[in-house]
Structures are given as structure tokens and as C-alpha cells.
Amino acid sequence: MAVRLVGTALVLQLSSGALAETPIPALGVHSLSSPHTDLYTAFLIEASRRFALPEHWVRAVLQVESNGNAGAVSSRGALGLMQIMPQTWVELSTRYDLGANPFDPHDNILAGAAYLREMLDRFGPEGFLAAYNVGPKRYETYLSTGRPLPLETTIYVARLVRLIGIKQHEYAALAIRQTVPKQQGALFFDRSDGAWVNARSTSALGFMNSPKGFPNMNGLALVPGVSQLFVQQSTEAELR
Questions:
Q1: Closest to 61 (Cα-Cα) out of 76, 78, 172
Q2: What is the 3-state secondary structure (H, E, C) of 185-221?
Q3: Distance between CA 102 and CA 89 in Å, rounded?
Q4: Does the active-site annotation cover 65?
Q5: pTM of the predicted model, to two decimals?
Q6: Widest CA span in the chain
Q7: If DSSP codes are grouped into helix, strand and coil, which group holds residue 123?
Q8: 52 in Cβ contact with 117 (< 8 Å)
Q9: pLDDT, tens digit, for every residue of 178-199?
Q10: What is the pLDDT of residues 103-143, one digit of tens each?
Q11: Per annotation, catalytic residue among 21, 46, 55, 65
Q12: Distance CA 136, CA 189 (A)
């Protein structure tokens, strides 16, 4: 399945080759307003400005991912409002100068918006939503081999397309803007296994491996120790 812009409509191309045309409604932030997401409006506005994304895009992703549940943990281990995988959280929190707690609403929203922006810059309007859901490596596999994306991703993209209502002129204005991570306060050092970490990334790893990081997870360590920054993929969807 792919998503591409055609005139004023988004066309979803399914793995079977069938085309289904979905009109783009002129949806804005008020169309997505709900008690579950309105609590985070200030954080959504900040994320929108910092990462050069329409606020209602970020709000829509938050709504679909967690429906405003800041403590949400998916069956695959995705965390918080924007449902970020643990190792992705470590990378984003380091890159964008965020805190150690993935359940902090402010930092989770900023991390999710940063990741959404990265996927938009990398895959464009036709692929960024699918890549956010299934992960960039799995989406690249789809592009290079045609291996169908999971049904979950197809449904996810279709739902967000209706909520977001991407317009060509809106994306064109965004495409020329770039977001630069904040200057990192800590110096990076080279690990013996070749990965780069800093004080912030080890802090995030330590938090998520501590009992207070996941009080309701019965001690389950969702992120490995510092010597194993990345975990093995165990499901159809990439651990994004």
C-alpha cells in the first residue's frame, strides 16, 4: 500500500493494485478537538512550531495512536501519547535534547513530532504516515521489493488521511523548511561496539530499565542495557 497525492485527493494504492480514491476534507485543529487531546494543546503547539508541522497533523497522530492516554503501552511495547518504541525514544531523546521519561506528555509529544518530521523529510507525503506506523526499514523494504505492508498499517494510514486532510500547498510550504536538533549539551563518546551514546541516552536507558520507569509492567525491561542499544525485531512491524 502506498499513499500519493493526485490533484486534491490522496490515492491509496493497495498491494493488490486496486485504487481507492479518498477526498481530502478541509480539516483543521477544531475538527480534531476532544477532551482527550485538548489537555495537551500547549505541547502540540510547541511541537508544531519546533518541527514545522501543522498542529492538527500531530494532534491527529496522537489521537489515533493513544487517544490521549499518556501511560499507554502497546502489545509491542510502544510508549506514551505518540506510541514511540523504547529504542527509538532513546535516540530521539538524545537527538532533540529531551528528558529520560518516555511517558512525560511534553517530551513524548515532541519526540513523536520529531519522528513524524523525519519520516516526512525521508519519504515525503506519500509515505511518511506508513513509515511512522511500520518503521522506516520495513517501509523501505516495501518500496524496494513490493512486499505488502501489514493490514494494520493500511487501516492506520487511511484513518489518518481522513483526519489530517493533507493539501498540496500545505506540504509544499513545509518541504522547504528543515528542523535542526537543539545543540546537545553533553559530549558524545564512542562505545566499544561502535554505537554513539552520550549522558542523555544512558540516562534514558537507565530510566526505562528501572522499576520506576514502568511501574505497571511487573519489572519487564523494554529496553536492553547500554551494551545493547538495539533490540531484535520480533514482529511483522519494525520496532519503530
A1: 78
A2: CCCCEECCCCCEECHHHHHHHHHHCCHHHCCCCCCCC
A3: 7
A4: yes
A5: 0.65
A6: 52
A7: helix
A8: yes
A9: 444 444 333 333 323 333 334 4
A10: 999 999 999 999 999 999 999 998 999 999 999 999 999 99
A11: 65
A12: 26
